[in-house]
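DM between two lab members

TW: hey, do you still have the Major facilitator superfamily (MFS) profile domain-containing protein entry open?
JB: yeah, one sec
JB: this one, 563 aa:
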Amino acid sequence: MAMSGLVSNRNFGHFICSGILCRGEQAILLHRGERLSVAVVHGNIVKPISVSPNGRQLILLSLHHSDKSHRDYPQQRSKGSFACCSFSSSSPGGWLEAGDKDKIVENRSSAFYKSEEYDITEAKLDSLPSPDENNEAILVERDIPWWQSFPKRWVIVLLCFAAFLLCNMDRVNMSIAILPMSKEFNWNSATVGLIQSSFFWGYLLTQILGGIWADKIGGKLVLGFGVVWWSVATILTPITAKIGLPFLLIMRAFMGIGEGVAMPAMNNLLSKWIPVSERSRSLALVYSGMYLGSVTGLAFSPILIHKFGWPSVFYSFGSLGSIWFALWLRKAYSSPEEDPELSKEEKKLIMGGSISKEPVKVIPWRLILSKAPVWALIISHFCHNWGTFILLTWMPTYYNQVLKFNLTESGLLCVLPWLTMAAFANIGGWIADTLVSRGLSITAVRKIMQSIGFLGPAFFLTQLSYVRTPAMAVLCMACSQGSDAFSQSGLYSNHQDIGPRYAGVLLGLSNTAGVLAGVFGTAATGYILQRGSWDDVFKVSVALYIIGTLVWNLFSTGEKILD
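TW: and the structure you got?
JB:
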């Protein structure tokens, strides 16, 4: 350990410092920018001793005090200051003796610098002086683990990322398991489409409700409820499938109810926790959890099915929700104001760049629905999700029936487009935040990113009609979904732009339209395939992508229109 400073005096009555001279004392701690200065006062001479706390932990190892009366250690927490221990004295001039050691109790205080909080443990007496010795307070610095100084707002983002990872793992496993299930239960394409779309029946019901609940009671409770609900429904799926088709359809709808609250609740949480300068990248990271969930589900489902049978996919994936929920209860809070461990510097950063934290009591529906940018969001979300959900639910079947891949190959090759999506979502987020920070208007950034998210998939889906090899088909799928991921910095970030206080409700509204696209698109694909071809399926998606591009660029905005 490296000694960072030695403070000596003969009359150490109080040692509480917050950037000013300690009352009646000859030792001071001064906060100067990013540095902490320890100054020792000798008569009229002040001798500063520099201490650099940034990334370090300061520990008061020993205190030799000139008072043998009662000592107490109240905490003092102050933004940008060093909170230390206090020694109250009623009879100055005394000395610590061996019997006084048990009078000093261990206490914990805090120091705040920038957005980090460092714990300081003090009052460890190593030795006691005689009346002829000097009193000493020794400060020593040491490294602290990086996770203790990790910004709390990004802990919330990572937990939301993990929730969305589980969300899509539990959703896409059916797209792989449906192949052996349809053989076992003799389901045709129309029945498969009905099963795939039944998820959206429940998913549709809780979009707006989830947004209202999150805006009124907080995103922590709503998202926690959703994960537990859909995890239980996932575990029960094999049981209901063996009982009968109607029971399976009901259970898939129940699973949709749980997953339906996830996006509005997450949007509410991030609108409270994330400043606008980090909005695109934080949302991109959370949504990339969905893509990586698809990767994980599509990669591991065939392996589990091959070794343990199709029910194992639902049992194993569903059980992971309990682990997440335990972490969520310990670490998550609905808003920065509710988190007792949040540093004052980080709280100031969040509150300065975010929205009013007053809970929403009344939803101004007439005002919301009278705004053209809100309808641009709704229509664009519908157009976007039609193509996205078709790829999500029908891609393994396309690989199996058209490209003649077996079950394992279908699952593994489905991974590549989702990996591309996860990567480009985060790339798009960083590009969008960089453009905003360099002065480009939020409106222009949202329009650019969403245009890529529409026209990219439209172009690459049209190329599927001309490719002749499975490798090129997979490449087109990957490029289509990679460009689609730029939507996370387009329409998916726009709810917090135009109405941050109602972010949950706005996402619930637009995602309701997106879910309707999933219901109709997934079911319609099964119908089209019975009478037409995959080219017809892709043509419908391309047409909707073009309509979405026009509506978005004509009517969307990045400015706040709802207070």
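TW: got it. Residues 152-185 form the longest helix (34 residues). Residues 1-36, 49-141 have pLDDT under 50 and may be disordered.
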